[in-house]
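Weekly sync notes, structure subgroup
Attendees: PM, AL, DS (notes)

Item 1: joint prediction request from the bench team. They want all three components modeled as one assembly rather than separately. Inputs as received:
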Amino acid sequence: MTAPGNPHGPGRPIRPFRLLAKTLILFVLANLGFATANPSGLGRISAYNLLVPGRERFPFGENSGQFYNLSLYDVDAMFASHVLSAGSKPADQYRVLILGDSSVWGLLLKPEDTVAGLLNTDHLAVCGKPARFYNLGYPTISLVKDLMILDQAADYQPDLILWFTTLQAFPLSTQLASPVVANNAPRVRDLIARYHLGLDPNNPAFPPESFWSQTIIGRRRDLADLVRLQLYGVMWAATGVDQVYPASFTPAQRDFEPDASFNGSSGPTLQPSQLAFGVLAAGQLAAGKVPILLVNEPILMSSGKNSDIRYNLFYPRWAYDQYRLMLSQFAKQIGWPYLDVWDTVPASEFTNSPIHLTVQGESILAEEVSEAIHSQPCS
Amino acid sequence: MTLSQILIGGAVALACGTLLPPRSRVYSFLAASVLAVFWFQPALPLRGLDFWLPVATLTLSIFGWLFTVPVSSRREAQNWVAAAIVLGLILLLGLTRYLNLEPILTASRPPQFEPILGLVAAVGVAFFSLTRSRGKSFAGLWLLTAALLAVFVVLKTPALGIAASAGVRAVTGQPTNLAAVSDLQWLGFSYIAFRMIHTFRDRQSGRLPDVSLAEYVTYVIFFPSLTAGPIDRIERFIQDLRHPVALGQEGWLAAGRRLVTGMFKKFVLADSLALIALNGTNATQVRSAGWAWVLLYAYAFQIYLDFSGYTDIAIGVGRLMGIQLPENFNAPYLKSNLALFWNSWHMSLTQWFRSYFFNPLTRALRSRKNAIPVGAIVFVSQISTMLLIGLWHGISTNFVLWGLWHGIGLFLQNRWSELTRRPISAWARSSPRRTFLEVIGVLVTFHYVALGWAFFALPTPSLTLAFLRRLAGVP
Amino acid sequence: MRRLIATIFTLENLLAIVFCLILIALVILTSGSGPRWIYQGF
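Output from the run, pasted for the record:
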């Protein structure tokens, strides 16, 4: 193969080994350049809300071939793929963002059967405007995870934030157990610094970073996830499927050992110093002037073996009862409206975990939430 | 083949093709291909089968040579060397069972050594006997052809595959109720069988040249084309084997370009399209005609890029070894009629069927005493050929329907061309008009082929019909 | 200037860029696709 029109003379042959060397040198330079530039906004480039509709909830999936979905760590990409990012907020929209865990996200539920979906179906009007509810729940239970999402979601001009939470989100020792938190060290460190969260910015749970890990090769999986997320957007648009709904599942445990422990402690006192109330409070700073309605989400109240000791797999009675009191006091102190629906959903309407509801359970919850919203004053 | 297998295969090809002395070329190709048969074989749930299937491949290849080689050539010393290499490598791989290491060259831990030794000994004895035999081997050829076709039918027919798997499970003491078609993934068998049948037919017609055992087995299991073709002709293959195409600067560039192009087509484009390509699950989930077409287009391009990508890789790796494998694709989706498409898609397979079925059938029909109309001959030949090509892919109703779709399409296109040749030539005198007809032809042909892929991608006729209705916007 | 551009943008250099981009795409898209993490909240 020769190179026509070359100033060194026509027909200069292409030397394969020189070509290979140049290719490899360029590849190495590209890696070094990528690591040096460390581009952080790649996740904002998205086909969602442009070529394909935005998702009704954050991408999450353990079996991507069946879910047409995947779990990734790039928070920008998560938001970019969400329908929340579909253009600017309409002037007449009352925008409500719902934060929470897998129960809000809706494990085993279709998007329209989650609390956000049901509230949208009700076509509520709040403060004279049609309300649009956005599901910003994400599987794994961690207040730092919620704060991280709230910190970014606040840019989307919400009128109200519903923050669903449960005791399991509070232990300081498990804040970084959420993979999306552990794998967003810079973002979390920034939160720690800005909101004075009192957490260790050098927590060993953060994966070690090196220059190598910032190269194209080091970040290849993250980059591949971004590409695959866009492709799965086609399947989301074509099918509306973002989760697999198995014909059967293992129901939440209802019989327990006589074990009264919670987070390594057998009580009898729940230590506030071991709980992340500071993170919860930082939500006020993140939300700015936007009101937050704090919701203590429903839990399974078992009547099985040793249910006098434990409500469910997550919570011994002593810990949960104290938590409810603390949460209620916290809400009063900080001035947040508080909705405690811990016992409003009957045990028969829980699915595979102490916090995951059936469609009927979500309907009950949605009704309670709707009433609470309407009882809020309009700003 | 995974990317790492391709890269290692390429390195091995380079070493075999350039670094080793010419005298040992064919033996190094043979050894590499024998190891590749084991290495590429996917792991199977049936105990030991992912070792025995490659052994079966090699055994069939050896017997294939024994029945095709002229009697006088069987006893040449070089063939004993080749037999020793093949059987010796089988034994060596069998011995890795006792290394207590993670299997590297085999899909899983090899079975007990004694049965392997027994089989190798039996093959060795048979080899010894047959090389000494003076008898002609046409009966053996028919027997082996029948055996290959029987295995082919079992592997390609779901019900038979499940029954065979259950049978093997009963022998290995594994639960028979878990028998599945996927238990019997025999790497590259479709291609191996057709290469061997080609040699049998050519032997019977006197066209097969004299080849050594090493050359024959290397041809059958040549590792660059083991998993996805192309189906080369042995006459052409051994020419390159004996007189390798010089590599040189141009050869390096050509090989490198094909390799890179192939890997890009397969691992970047095809594997990405696979996420959104039509399949049996999403066909039931798709909500609108527009998106249904997107899934279908994605499938059409995914299957082309996947297959042609593998071909490019095979050609590139072969080139590094001095073997110029035949082309398998020639821009098939840019062809303006179905006949041209089938001259450009999986060319080695269609040429095989043309040589060993279509042409002989057409000749036989034409030479009948009671003349059959030309149209009927075309109809029978094209339909039956396409049916067989469909069945080569799988023995199920949907593959039959796919074959019929193309057979009928070819026949209708043939008749249309006959009817409209004069009026179209009269009309299409100017270049813009010819271009216009060309573009229309390409679009119609592409969409005809794409619709046919629905039969290919989906498992049942009812699902296919439902999907075709969805494409048409019919609920 | 034109000479410089012609010297840089030779066919060999352009091919090297193309091959480099293909290599980058290969490196990225052949990374594993198994789940990054498994939900444990049951």
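Discussion: The CA atoms of residues 45 and 104 of chain A lie 26 Å apart.
Action: AL to compare against the crosslinking data before next sync.
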